[in-house]
């Protein structure tokens, strides 16, 4: 995946997140589409691409939110890099391993992100276990479904074309 | 640039990027100056993207609702909604006026209240991450917006302006973990601070056990925070946990349905406290 492709995936995910946020964030359930995009890029294109996606996505999110610029970027950079390393070291071609990677990535992100805010005494999160758990599950479900769609889409289009060709004959 | 070309040095690159982030964070933590340039430019550019997306979605929705759907009914419905919103704002202002009539001091503030000047703004974007509860609106400094201006909806308090740029601004919702407002229980006149709980609700803090608080009590702004005008609805007490006589946790259900917000009002008139406190947060 080229740099332009990574930027495009991340920008589209940010645009979707800022448009759909009210529908995908509930009390103890949330989906971070930028995180899903970062992990997707990392698993399909490796640690450097994942790190780039994490840096760009995190910094855009930071600048659009009321937080410190760099904290979300740092958290997503680490997640992108680690997910990319996992993707190169282990076989993550099936839904279950991918689900686990998305879960773990969300937990790592929450730990770094919330940990930095708490250490710097900028924001307090109480006991956010339910929210992190809900977000991890949400990200994992959406991530696995996104993988399935991206992988199945070309085949479905091909089958449809072939079917049309047969009908014409 | 192909990503594969720099893969060999990924470890050093990773460390470099992490270091860059740490420097970036360090440069901001102690800064108390206004909006950083990077933030201002990035947000300014992306808010335009959000504006285009919002107007695109709005256009499609308008075509569907206005031309394919029941066009006249929608127009009438919009007009009635607007009238209802105005009426609800007026009711809240009247209630606030009634509160203020309780003392001579408050009578003086009545004049300021009746002169509340607001401007309407449309929401063009939501929070970019689930960890923050913010919205982006289509009005900015060009329309007279400043940091810490109160943002209201017909149902009650929405939040405050935290990052205004020329043509758009970020509003921190009252349910954000870092948001807080001085409040008063309408029935018992007990004062406290409503803070975002991060789960879509508010929690009432600094409430003395000497005061009576009950489930169902209406909570309104006290005006003491120098941001929100007095007497506007914040929410209703929906649960109370006690440990002995002391309140352990008081939860407030917000008056505003933040997931259904489309338009908001920004209070342009400074609250009286702001006018008398030079060097304040304004």
- CATH top-level class of chain B: Mainly Beta
Q: Supply the number of structural domains of chain A.
A: 1
CATH topology value of chain B: Thrombin, subunit H
* Total of DSSP H or I helical runs spanning 4+ residues of chain B: 5
Major sheet description of chain B: 6 strands, antiparallel, barrel
Give a count of the beta strands of chain A, DSSP E runs of length 2 or more: 2
| Principal-axis shape of chain A | elongated
Tag the structure with descriptive keywords.
A: 169 residues; mainly alpha; two-stranded antiparallel sheet; 6 helices; 81% helix; B: Thrombin, subunit H; 6-stranded antiparallel barrel; 12 strands
Give the gist of this structure.
Chain A has about 170 residues and is an all-alpha fold.
Write the layout of secondary structure elements.
The complex is a heterodimer of chains A (169) and B (282).
Chain A: H1 3-24, E1 25-26, E2 29-30, H2 33-45, H3 47-64, H4 71-89, H5 95-119, H6 129-168
Antiparallel strand pairs in A: 1-2
Chain B: H1 10-29, H2 37-68, H3 71-100, H4 104-114, E1 118-126, E2 134-137, E3 150-153, E4 156-164, E5 169-173, E6 180-185, E7 191-196, E8 202-205, E9 218-221, E10 233-243, E11 246-254, E12 263-267, H5 272-276
Antiparallel strand pairs in B: 1-2, 1-12, 2-5, 3-4, 3-12, 4-5, 6-7, 6-9, 7-8, 8-11, 9-10, 10-11
Helix pairs in contact in B: 2-3, 3-4
């Amino acid at each position: 995946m080229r740099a332009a492709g990574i930027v495009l995936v991340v920008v589209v995910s940010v645009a979707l997140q800022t448009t759909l946020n009210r529908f995908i964030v509930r009390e103890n359930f949330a989906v971070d589409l930028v995180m899903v995009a970062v992990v997707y890029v990392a698993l399909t294109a490796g640690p450097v691409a994942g790190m780039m996606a994490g840096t760009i996505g995190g910094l855009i999110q930071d600048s659009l939110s009321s937080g410190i610029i760099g904290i979300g970027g740092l958290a997503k950079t680490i997640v992108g890099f680690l997910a990319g390393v996992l993707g190169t070291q282990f076989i993550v071609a099936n839904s279950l391993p991918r689900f686990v990677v998305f879960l773990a990535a969300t937990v790592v992100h929450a730990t770094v992100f919330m940990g930095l805010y708490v250490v710097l005494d900028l924001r307090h999160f109480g006991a956010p276990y339910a929210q992190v758990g809900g977000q991890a599950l949400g990200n994992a479900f959406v991530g696995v479904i996104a993988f399935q769609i991206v992988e199945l889409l070309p085949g479905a289009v091909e089958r449809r074309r072939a079917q049309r060709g047969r009908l014409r004959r | 640039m192909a990503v594969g070309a720099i893969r060999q040095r990924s470890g050093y690159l990773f460390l470099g990027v992490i270091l860059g982030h740490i420097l970036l964070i360090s440069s901001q933590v102690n800064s108390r100056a206004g909006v950083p340039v990077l933030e201002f430019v990035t947000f300014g550019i992306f808010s335009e993207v959000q504006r285009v997306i919002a107007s695109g979605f709005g256009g499609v929705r308008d075509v569907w609702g206005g031309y394919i759907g029941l066009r006249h009914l929608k127009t009438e419905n919009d007009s009635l909604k607007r009238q209802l919103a105005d009426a609800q704002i007026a009711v809240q202002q009247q209630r606030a006026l009634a509160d203020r009539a309780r003392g001579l001091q408050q009578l003086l503030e009545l004049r300021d209240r009746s002169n509340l000047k607001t401007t309407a703004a449309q929401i063009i974007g939501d929070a970019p991450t689930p960890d923050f509860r913010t919205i982006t609106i289509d009005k900015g400094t060009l329309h007279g917006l400043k940091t810490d201006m109160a943002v209201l909806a017909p149902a009650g308090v929405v939040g405050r302006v935290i990052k205004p740029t020329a043509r758009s601004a970020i509003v921190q919702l009252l349910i954000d973990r870092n948001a807080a407002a001085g409040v008063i229980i309408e029935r018992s006149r007990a004062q406290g601070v409503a803070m975002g709980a991060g789960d879509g609700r508010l929690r009432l803090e600094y409430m003395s056990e000497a005061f009576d608080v009950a489930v169902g009590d209406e909570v309104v702004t006290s005006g003491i925070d120098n941001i929100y005008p007095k007497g506007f609805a914040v929410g209703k007490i929906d649960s109370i946990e006690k440990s002995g006589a002391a309140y352990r946790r008081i939860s407030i259900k917000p008056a505003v349905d933040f997931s259904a917000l489309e338009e908001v009002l920004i209070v342009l008139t400074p609250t009286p406290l702001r006018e008398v406190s030079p060097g304040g947060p304004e």
